[in-house]
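Forwarding the complex inputs:
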Amino acid sequence: MTFDGLWDELAPVGRDAGSGGYRRFAWTRTDGELREWFTGEARRRSLDVMSDRGGNLWAWLGDPDADGPGLVVGSHLDSVPDGGAFDGPLGVVSAFAALDALRESGWRPSRPLAIAAFSDEEGARFGVACAGSRIITGALDADRARSLADVDGTTMAEAMAAAGHDPARVGRDDEALRRVGTFVELHIEQGKGLVDGDAAVGVASAIWPHGRWRLDLRGRADHAGTTRLADRSDPMLDLAAAIAKARAAAAEHDALATIGKLAVHPNGVNAIPSAVTAWLDARGPVEADVRKVVAAVGAAAGVTPAEESWTSATAFDAELRDRLARVLAGADGKPAPVLPTGAGHDAGILSAAGIPTAMLFVRNPTGVSHAPDEHAEPADCHHGVRALAQVLENLA
Amino acid sequence: MTFDGLWDELAPVGRDAGSGGYRRFAWTRTDGELREWFTGEARRRSLDVMSDRGGNLWAWLGDPDADGPGLVVGSHLDSVPDGGAFDGPLGVVSAFAALDALRESGWRPSRPLAIAAFSDEEGARFGVACAGSRIITGALDADRARSLADVDGTTMAEAMAAAGHDPARVGRDDEALRRVGTFVELHIEQGKGLVDGDAAVGVASAIWPHGRWRLDLRGRADHAGTTRLADRSDPMLDLAAAIAKARAAAAEHDALATIGKLAVHPNGVNAIPSAVTAWLDARGPVEADVRKVVAAVGAAAGVTPAEESWTSATAFDAELRDRLARVLAGADGKPAPVLPTGAGHDAGILSAAGIPTAMLFVRNPTGVSHAPDEHAEPADCHHGVRALAQVLENLA
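Prediction (whole assembly, two chains):
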């Protein structure tokens, strides 16, 4: 099937009619529909679908257990709340389309090949990004993964069980990883690094160090209409200090810091809150600077930030990176552009686990991502499919 | 039945096992249980239960349509999120207990008498406090009331219909108001005005002017990990400015201002929000000062606050206030203490509509209200019942 046909099939799943964005959260009914779609597309192509101990899906052509580690391409299908259509699905849909194009031309791979869809990459429901790849590499402890809870108090273990994935299986999965000789993830660019050049596709150099922290701000519930200012313990004031400091410290230390998620308790118009929980996302080119930002925000709010996830700087495999940049050279022979990113990806987790890994970025004309109007031009998406096909041809 | 017996009956309804506080929101299943309890207690005492066009409940002894306007005592049964047991129910339970005590002594009222339970006093679900009394006095427009929506998007009209109250009936209800000759609301004090004296019960002088405003802070959804600080439009920064200014302006103008409720969209850890909605509660002894605080908060956040409700200063009926203070005089002949409050009440709405109205406050040892540990000593509650019985005897 063509890229456009596959893309249209997937477009309605998990789309919010109000915002026009996507709400594709891990281990929900919508997630189940995405998994069914993936499995159906794989079976239609006679690929063998396996689910690993993190719930990630692998659709194999050939037998990596018998014939040695294979080449894996893919990405993820879940989204942030009201996310765009491209972040994740573009890599999976492009992988199917690239395989179809190559097979139609009579090509047969010289080594086992898989298309992967990783679980819960965004961490939108349980708060830990790249949960699926972190579980199988051991970067996320199995017991901690099982006990992560969503805003309604449902644990990941409960959500997995409800979706038919045995939570007792959760854990490091060396067998699944041993099958992966090389991993290449194609992804929409989440920034404007490719906008000014003449290339629709670039190659990733590195992922900035990045992490998430939880600030538990405590106060005392009281009546907003009768409690004197002097008698108040209002955690909203600490929140205000944290938000202002996050921006100031990020500017000072040449990093990024964002408070994008809050939970207020009891969240009543005339009740001074007893507690506010704020989540801080911080990243930047230099780890020490990111750490300074987090410490400054904690100090401003009067708490020690609780680290929910942390990923050190990831430099992708240099040899693979340079090879792909050459494979994707333009008509003038100039290698494809090479650029870093502030966004974490499953490719970064696998790279940190020692697997030769690369990423391709498809041009994003506005740079907008994690929002309903995230967009890539169809011509650039088709260019991405051709690039991925060239990579498959070159590496398998 | 005794006060304690009635109190124990009501205690489990809508109690949250986690916080120990109450979640009794208008037109929910829990609200239905409270209404059933009220109706059952009224029928057991051979009172005629009527529901008015705002969904408020009235249990009449005698016929106010035939025998002229009556004396009404009561309060409300709903709560803020994780509210205390006393705010509201104390006035309703005390009314039943006071009537029982008087009837046991052989007393019969000389005029019609009712116990009232007002709908949706806290406005916890739909954002407008005293919604039931505002609807019947016309202070809240019927169409606006019907279209108010809760956080899930359910409108008040839909919620009423689901609870069996025809939303087409909603509106000003002169017939219901004509029956009310005098209204007396007993309520737990929400402050510490009675703590230092030797009286368990006081009489209200006035309610501060108070209101609620909505701040709609807009930004642009973007990826937290890839969008440069300079390219961001992040409404969280406006929220931080609003919170800080609310406290500073309240201190400057001798008023109270609180931001206790927020809605963040999309509320994802790694998404710069596209919108933050914050609700501002502001009150104080002087209306002009309250208005200055609201304007200052709006200016700090770069928006014009949308007024969701406003209640001017309410001075209760002076003659009734002084009469009750004398009726409740201590053994030494000293009148009961008279004190103002920053909290709004249905009594204030009825008073503003021209009905002679008074309030009694029962001592609150910590001043805490709108929180699970809101408390009044049993002896003070019993004192409140006796005070209400004295008022009934004196006025009916």
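Chain B touches chain A through 68 residues (CB under 8 Å).
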